[in-house]
Amino acid sequence: CSVYSVGHDGNCIIGDQIYLALSPQKISCDYKIMGQEVMLESSLFGVQHTKNMALALCLGWFLKIDLSAIKIALASMIVLEGRGLIYPLSNNCYLIDESYNSNPTSCGVAIQNLLCGAHGRATQFKTCAILGGMRELGEKTNISHQYMNKPSKKI
Hints:
- There is one protein chain.
- The protein contains four helices and six strands, in the order ββββααββαα.
- The protein is α+β, with helices and mostly antiparallel strands.
- The strands form two sheets. The chain has a four-stranded mixed sheet. A two-stranded antiparallel ribbon has the order 5-6.
- α1 packs antiparallel against α2 (67-75) and α3 packs parallel to α4.
- The mean pLDDT is 77.
């Protein structure tokens, strides 16, 4: 039985060089698998996808799929609506749609991704988060909105 681990140690190490771009939409990250350094890119947007990409790399490595084929497959992934799809608007504005099954944790990650993507650009961005009611959280709705307001103050 082969065991592969993904993270900041183990068989597939996620590197520190993570780059998010708003236009064109993409993420790139360096990895090291079994001692070999690899740079992967995808049209996905968000640091949460670095682990998904690492898992794909490990699985491809285990199945002895050629590294160039793995890179091509990851680079050609299509972003689904509500899952980090970026819509360029007028006046250097972007709408990042993270609406699918959103919750306080995923919303916080989306805000951090916005910060990383916006700061990767030479221009300054004005940013805002549009949050729904989160009524499914019941009495925790107000606390969750307050929690979401904390990371947004950094924006």
